[in-house]
Amino acid sequence: MKILLALQVFLLVTLMRVAQIKGIIIRHTQKTWTMEIVGVDWNITNEDLIAVDLKIEQVSRTSYRFSGTIDIRYELTEDSMFKLILYRSATGNADRYQLLPYRIEKTQFYDFLDEYYKGFLKEFETCSNFPVIKTKARDYKFRQLYRFDKCTVTNDPMPNYMPEGYYKVIMQFSGETDWSLTFVVQVESKRQ
To answer: Where does the signal peptide begin and end (predicted)?
Structure first.
């Protein structure tokens, strides 16, 4: 029995090595996809505390810019929370989106900024008045009107491979008031 198990392991390892040599197991070292933002929406429970007005425009095939404002009229605290949820649909039909396992669980907004600022938000420092965070997010005040002027959305910090389809990215903010931003992104494979 042990000999049979050892033989199975040996064959499996050998097949995996051959598959890697022949290119059957693919590791993507470059982006295999492009994205196009096809929609943005928001939901606000208290318009006295938050106002959003964003518009998205396509600049080129892989470059997108958005302009508009987010007016935060309350100060963020330790009770201010953030959560990101991701859905995918092959067709983009509203009733065909399926929840994906990729998410950022509910966390303090300050901790979210400390963790993800460099990857996702740092690019806004040249096109908006969003604070350049050099220390910890808790050192900054966020109650103000944020202006975004042709900010670029990049896929650089994202995975090298993503299946084609439509992705719905929902960012939920909670605390003194609840509000959310929803972006719909179409992902297509790069044409060779």
So the answer is: 1-23
Residue 17 lies in a domain: no
DSSP bridge pairs for 4: none
Name all contacts of 55-60 with Cβ < 8 Å and 24+ positions apart: 57/150, 59/152
Domain at 150, CATH number:
2.70.220.10
Would residue 4 count as lying in a domain? no
Per-residue pLDDT reduced to its tens digit, 32-64: 888 877 888 999 999 999 999 999 887 776 677
State how far the Cα of 38 lies from the Cα of 138, in Å rounded to an integer.
Answer: 33
Tell me how far apart the terminal alpha carbons of the chain are, to the nearest angstrom. 49
Alpha-helical regions (H) of 35-124: 109-116
Residue 163's contacts (CB-CB under 8 Å, 6 or more residues apart) are 88, 187
Task: Let me know if residue 183 belongs to a domain.
Answer: yes
Q: Which domain holds residue 46?
A: 32-189
